[in-house]
Write a structure and sequence with these properties.
The protein is an alpha+beta fold. The chain has one domain: Glutaredoxin, CATH 3.40.30. It contains ten helices and nine strands.
Length: 214
């Protein structure tokens, strides 16, 4: 089953069981991100990703430039291990890890969740690809993929048991738009996939085919 098929199943199931008023809250949040033109304000193809510090699940600090990769690096910015859509996506990249490696490409996952939670995400999804924490979303903010939750969304997240103050270790109530950035050895952006709707993701095999054209 492709990632798109899995996402559709989950999206349909969510829409069927979730009350319409809650669905509307999340739809309004997506609409607001689009209205703010976040996609147009982010770093674009040809721009250089800033060299900002990340933390590994082993609590080791490293600059992005010190992460070892062959020719290209896929930065998978995900919301957190609490997000089932993100978990699905991470697992699909794990399945294709060797195929990406053949094309000289490595993959890392990046979220703003605390290190111990990032480690849980790594373990529960049986990942071998590295997962990093972007503390206080500094890298995500520098790229421009972060938005702040509105009050209605904060309330619903808490109702679902997701306290972002505990997940992120701060009171910023910020999340990244799930995004894929592919960079070369100069940290130059080669490809972007940015989708305001968190239920929509790029098919990993499609990205693999794009990388083959570089």
């Amino acid at each position: 089953m492709t990632l798109q098929e899995q996402l559709k199943q989950m999206r349909d199931a969510t829409m069927n069981r979730m009350p319409q008023n809650i669905i509307q809250v999340f739809k309004d949040s997506i609409t607001e991100i689009k209205k703010n033109k976040l996609k147009e304000k982010t770093l674009q193809v040809g721009d250089i990703i800033p060299d900002i510090t990340l933390q590994s699940i082993h609590n080791e600090t490293t600059l992005l430039s010190n992460i070892d990769y062959t020719n290209f690096l896929v930065l998978n910015f995900y919301r957190g291990g609490w997000c089932p859509y993100c978990n699905m996506e991470l697992r699909e990249y794990e399945k294709l890890k060797n195929d990406f490696n053949i094309e000289g490409t490595d993959i890392i996952g990046i979220s703003a969740e605390r290190i111990e939670l990032a480690n849980q995400t790594h373990v529960k999804n049986s990942l071998s690809l590295p997962v990093f924490t972007d503390v206080d979303a500094k890298l995500m903010k520098a790229i421009g993929i972060v938005f702040q939750l509105d009050e209605a969304s904060k309330k619903e997240y808490k109702n679902f048991g997701m306290d972002l103050t505990k997940i992120h270790g701060n009171g910023n109530y910020e999340l990244p738009v799930p995004a894929i950035y592919v960079i070369n050895k100069k940290r130059e952006i080669m490809h972007i996939h940015f989708e305001e709707d968190y239920m929509t993701r790029l098919e990993p095999r499609e990205l693999l085919n794009i990388i083959k054209t570089f």
